[in-house]
Amino acid sequence: MTSSLQSGEQTLNFIGSRVVKVLAGGPDFVRLQSLDFTLEAAHPLFGKITMTLPDVGVSPLSAVRLSSSGFTETWYETSEIKFERSGNLPGPFEFQSEKPLTATATMPNWPPPPQATNPDGSPTGGVLYSVVQPPTFTGGDQRGDFTAFPPNVGQLLAP
């Protein structure tokens, strides 16, 4: 899995993985339960940035539905994010999502097709999700609102 997280003018390209369990749903959909989820990115000011499932709590169930163009996934994800540092201040700085991220994607096949990365680390291939509900993270008295989060999900190909 790779993702891009945009906040203002900055884009962070995440690379990682998401492990899901397929559960029964209905006649035209299945549910997905996130079992593991880890993404990592690098930033000159914040160092290594890691997004994972929280230690406690359960992520809401996502769903994959049959659609006229193949499959539509609605992905709900509760997460925490950790920044290695903030400028010269050593961390880690940890934040919890206030509510789940909500994103959707339509694809001809499920699971998403293979993907790779460009020389600059940005994702290529896979499936681009549209954000319905961008994440807001809080930690102590700090809060971060991200205006866009276009995750691109698929299998990372070897270089």
Outline the structure in words.
Helices cover 0% and strands 65% of the residues. It has no helices and 16 strands. Strands 1, 2, 3, 4, 5, 6, 7, 8, 9, 12, 13, 14, 15 and 16 form a 14-stranded antiparallel sheet that branches. It has a two-stranded antiparallel ribbon with strand order 10-11. The chain starts with a strand and ends in a 6-residue tail after the last strand. Mean pLDDT is 80; it is low at 1-8.
Rg over alpha carbons = 16 Å
Total DSSP helices: 0
Major β-sheet, in short? 14 strands, antiparallel
Q: Enumerate the spans where pLDDT stays under 50 for 5 or more consecutive residues.
A: 1-8
Label the overall shape. globular
Structural class: mainly beta
Provide a brief overview of the structure.
The chain has about 160 residues and is mainly β. The chain has strands at about 1-5, 10-25, 30-45, 45-50, 60-65, 70-75, 80-85, 90-95, 100-105, 115, 125, 125-130, 130-135, 135-140, 140-145, 150-155.
